[in-house]
Design goal:
6-stranded mixed beta sheet, 20 helices, Rossmann fold, globular, binds pyridoxal-5'-phosphate, 5-stranded parallel beta sheet
Length: about 425
């Protein structure tokens, strides 16, 4: 399978190049040249297949021509070492729980898959591959844990000192092995600037193999289609049409759902659930896409003012605004409404949402039509946002899963560095080739 750039100004590449490079040279995002409809037999069997089995079929459709079947099966099965259960929260409203992975957020699926695919392509390489990732919290933990113990790859997580929560910090500073946490005496922007400078430094590039684990990578983006199939596999829609509500920031998750629908998954429409960062909502209303600076909200993993995967949505629909509006309904809620829905759901049903899931839950409550059944994606465990959630439902009401507790018991190990690039470069050059 070839991958083209959404800007169409760079040559098509093979999967290996798309995965190792991440971004196309014309700064476009890679897209698979074909999205194949799965056989009717696949859908007839879907409810009887395990998550790993159906995901392997989906993965084969994209990657089957580029990775031997056995190796691909191992990548998929190893990635999905946990379930994504579908739970009925109230009549016609279901939660797809994507927080049962190692770092309790949906990003585990893409990060684990990408780590294994990268390892597959680099297995024959003699040199160590150094993955650089700047994080404001959540991405660092998913990437670090996704790559943990993968041979031939070393991950360097750059994070701003004192600006991530203790739980988040412990999830990438206590791992050891092939993970190093660099505690930057600066902001998240400084971390990003250091990573960017490393990729632009030709001297460094010629002496060490560097890559990024950015969320626009096709190996992080496409596997997110797996759990849409698994959700439908677990649902009995009783003749109703299926709607997915997706709490969205960079729009990778929702775009993966659109891909699943193109492959034949019976989805009536998607709801793009936004917090106050609403550029996609505005696009749906007006037809104009105008990125703007992000504003902070309590659903902070969705505080994105210029969602990078939006170009993939435009590309999927040939830039046709009317068609996009048919497939996607937009909603946007301020913090007050997010809190209100989180509290209401908890008190009326006993189900505890995290602030991101709460945005999508509210969207279903407001938008679902009588002939529809709704699934919202619960993208993180509420305990990842204990402070915020406790402020809404009361102290002591947010149970701490054992996995998170285990991270807290670990000892933080980090390497303090400044914002000066030469120091970071010296560090990288001190590493094994
Ligand atoms: C990253 C993230 C999102 C947003 O997902 P996108 O694919 O960027 O739209 C939503 N919820 C949580 C908890 C996240 O970590």
């Amino acid at each position: 399978m070839k991958y083209y750039s959404t800007r169409h100004l760079a040559p098509d590449v093979d999967l290996r190049t798309a995965v190792t490079k991440g971004l196309a040279p014309d700064r476009g995002l890679y897209m698979p040249e074909k999205i194949e409809q799965l056989e009717p037999y696949f859908f007839a069997q879907l409810a009887h297949r395990t998550f790993q089995e159906s995901s392997f079929e989906v993965a084969r459709s994209f990657f089957g021509g580029d990775i031997p079947s056995e190796a691909l099966q191992e990548i998929v099965y190893d990635t999905l070492s946990f379930q994504t259960p579908l739970l009925e929260v109230e009549k016609d409203v279901y939660s797809l729980e994507l927080f049962h992975g190692p770092t309790l957020a949906f990003k585990d699926v893409g990060a684990r898959f990408m780590a294994r695919m990268l390892a597959h392509f680099l297995a024959a390489a003699q040199q160590t591959v150094h993955v650089l990732v700047a994080t404001s919290g959540d991405t660092g933990s998913a990437v670090a844990n996704g790559f943990l113990g993968i041979e031939g790859i070393h991950v360097h997580v750059l994070y701003p000192k004192g600006k991530v929560s203790e739980i988040q910090e412990k999830q990438f500073t206590t791992l050891g092995q092939n993970i190093t946490a660099l505690e930057v005496d600066g902001t998240f922007d400084d971390c990003q600037a250091l990573v960017k400078a490393a990729f632009l430094d030709e001297d460094l590039q010629s002496r060490r193999v560097l890559t990024s684990a950015n969320s626009i990578n096709v190996a992080r983006f496409l596997p997110q289609a797996f759990y849409y199939f698994n959700a439908v596999a677990q649902l009995n829609p009783r003749g109703k049409k299926i709607v997915f509500a997706v709490p969205s920031g960079n729009f990778g998750n929702l775009t993966a759902g659109l891909i699943a629908a193109r492959m034949g998954l019976p989805v009536e429409r998607f709801i793009a659930a936004n917090n106050r960062n609403d550029v996609v909502y505005q696009y749906l209303q007006t037809g104009h896409f105008e990125p703007k600076p992000s504003v902070p909200t309590i659903a902070n993993a969705m505080d994105v003012g210029d969602p990078s995967n939006f170009v993939r949505i435009l590309d999927l629909f040939d830039q046709d605004h009317a068609q996009i509006c048919e497939a996607i309904t937009g909603v946007t809620y301020p913090d007050e409404q997010i809190k209100e829905s989180l509290a209401e759901c908890y008190h009326q049903t006993g189900y505890l949402l995290d602030p991101h899931g709460a945005v999508a839950y509210r969207a279903l409550k407001e938008q679902l039509r009588p002939d529809e059944v709704g699934i919202f994606l619960e993208t993180a465990h509420p305990a990842k946002f204990t402070e915020t959630v406790e402020a809404i439902v009361g102290p002591g009401n947010v149970p701490m899963p054992e996995k998170l507790h285990d991270f807290l018991k670990g000892e933080k190990q980090s390497l303090p560095i400044g914002t000066d690039f030469s120091q970071f470069k010296d560090y990288l050059l001190s590493l094994k080739e």
